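Example for tutorial group B:
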């Protein structure tokens, strides 16, 4: 993909209709962003909004102050709100121009038929028994929020159109559309909702189109200490990583039942946040605590410090305080595929658990000319004959080759993720967690080849891949489900939901699963050959 380096005029931003986006896909994106409007209604809504804009031109001068005086609302039906405002201004329907050029970006959806404009005005009974000041404020809120709602809907359409232009290689036209979107973004609230999501996605599109090496601006291509800090704040801001740790720990604890010498290999140590809970659980075993070995894989320290050893010392101190025999080994590696099985020093007398929290998807971007990193790593995992392999991955499909498909899926997924983050009351943790997510978005959309490591795939694909590699699924069981459900009680938001799918668990926000946990065991070679 070449850089955008062509001069363009402001008039060159008109985009051809898209043949890729279906009304059902747009409906899903709008619903995920919190808008209760169907794609088939957008033409009619656009007509009403233009009528409203025409009315506002002739309205009292006080209307110009609406933007600065208004509060933010979330109307559920933009069409009825616009009708209500037209009634409040006491205007007769005005004739519509045949060319709605300002809303040309809304008309590219396949199958949209322009319906007749509904001339029925809304019920005005809600304005009764209100003071003139309250009525005036309600009118102002309605107009400003309706206009912002329309801008948000237009941004969704423009972003998808821009993604299609990028896929086709029409970078000058995509660059012009990005400039229009940046201007339109000033008309919406970027602190939450679709305004915040659009800001991150427009920035990613801008980096891809205007920057010669966009992957240089994305810091998700490998492990780093800075990523560890962002990871820690993401851990604190929302329950996704806690869900991953609690669910995996419960499965590992059950797999270690009856064994006196156990060994956990953690593919991403990250401050060791997962392991204090497991150490304490092992200390409470009725048959006594086993000897626990922990091998933690992480990035080399840029300042020369042995940060892995420091984490190990802290965990050793905790284990000593609860009378658990403990040994730690750190393995410094910039990439998971650089780890070799001999580095782990696994003993045949140990019960082994392999723990991968959002790491395996990074192996999917191998260079085609050499052996698949995924096949290699899964091969030596199987050779270690672990009692259990715990896998937690994003429940998303961001590894699609077509950029438009990847962009649309990412827009839907991260809109839901940002929506769930609004439930976080810790403002600092939430702000830093958003940077963590922003880097994921940048890597998904700006990078290609080996630089694109955030290659998330859904649970169904992991089932097929791990099954083909010689692993069979293990049921996570009712205890893991109870642990995950209890975890959610620590969060005040009611939108989080845990679901069980064929022995695996997912955590999502309302109806959208966002993270999936599963457990696996290698099939003995003799059994597989039969």
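The residue assignment follows.
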């Amino acid at each position: 993909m070449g850089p955008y380096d062509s001069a363009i005029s402001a008039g060159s931003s008109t985009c051809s209709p898209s043949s890729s986006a279906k009304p059902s896909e747009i409906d899903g994106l709008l619903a995920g962003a919190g808008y209760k409007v169907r794609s088939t209604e957008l033409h009619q809504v656009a007509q009403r909004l233009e009528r409203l804009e025409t009315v506002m031109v002739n309205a009292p001068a006080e209307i110009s102050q609406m933007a600065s005086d208004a509060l933010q609302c979330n109307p559920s039906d933009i069409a009825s709100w616009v009708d209500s405002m037209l009634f409040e201004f006491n205007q007769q329907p005005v004739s519509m121009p045949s060319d709605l050029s300002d809303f040309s970006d809304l008309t590219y959806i396949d199958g949209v038929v322009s319906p007749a404009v509904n001339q029925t005005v809304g019920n005005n009974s809600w304005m009764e028994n209100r003071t003139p000041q309250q009525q005036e404020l309600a009118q102002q809120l309605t107009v400003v929020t309706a206009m912002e709602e329309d801008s948000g809907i237009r941004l969704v359409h423009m972003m998808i159109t821009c993604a299609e232009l990028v896929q086709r290689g029409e970078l000058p036209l995509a660059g012009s559309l990005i400039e229009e979107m940046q201007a339109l973004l000033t008309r919406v609230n970027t602190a939450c909702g679709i305004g915040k999501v659009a800001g991150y996605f427009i920035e990613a599109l801008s980096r891809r189109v205007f920057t010669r090496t966009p992957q240089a601006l994305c810091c998700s291509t490998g492990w780093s200490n800075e990523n560890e800090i962002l990871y820690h704040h993401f851990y604190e801001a929302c329950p996704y990583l806690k869900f991953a740790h609690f669910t995996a720990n419960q499965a590992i604890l059950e797999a270690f039942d009856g064994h006196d010498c156990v060994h956990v290999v953690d593919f991403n140590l990250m401050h060791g946040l997962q392991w204090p809970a497991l150490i304490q659980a092992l200390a409470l075993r009725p048959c006594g605590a086993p000897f626990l070995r922990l091998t933690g894989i992480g990035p080399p320290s840029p300042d020369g410090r042995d940060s892995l050893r420091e984490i190990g010392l802290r965990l050793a101190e905790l284990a000593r305080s609860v009378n658990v025999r403990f040994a730690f080994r750190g393995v410094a590696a910039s990439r998971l595929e650089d780890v070799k099985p001999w580095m782990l020093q696994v003993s045949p007398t140990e019960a082994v658990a392999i723990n991968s929290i959002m790491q395996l998807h990074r192996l999917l971007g191998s260079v085609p000319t050499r052996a698949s990193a995924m096949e290699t790593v899964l091969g030596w995992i199987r050779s270690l004959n672990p009692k259990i392999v715990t896998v937690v991955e994003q429940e998303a499909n961001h590894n699609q080759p077509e950029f438009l498909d990847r962009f649309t899926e990412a827009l839907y997924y991260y809109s839901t993720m940002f929506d769930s983050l609004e439930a976080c009351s810790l403002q600092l943790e939430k702000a830093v967690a958003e940077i963590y997510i922003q880097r994921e978005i940048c890597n998904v959309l700006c990078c290609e080849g080996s630089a694109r490591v955030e290659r998330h795939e859904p649970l169904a694909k992991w089932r097929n891949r791990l099954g083909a590699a010689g692993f069979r699924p293990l049921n996570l069981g009712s205890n893991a489900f109870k642990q995950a459900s209890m975890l959610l009680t620590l969060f005040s938001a009611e939108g989080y939901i845990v679901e069980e799918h064929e022995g695996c668990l997912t955590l999502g926000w309302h109806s959208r699963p966002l993270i999936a946990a599963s457990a696996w065991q290698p099939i003995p070679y003799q059994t597989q050959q039969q």
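Confidence is low (pLDDT under 50) at residues 1-20, 60-76, 90-127. Compare this with the pattern of hydrophobic and polar residues in the output above.
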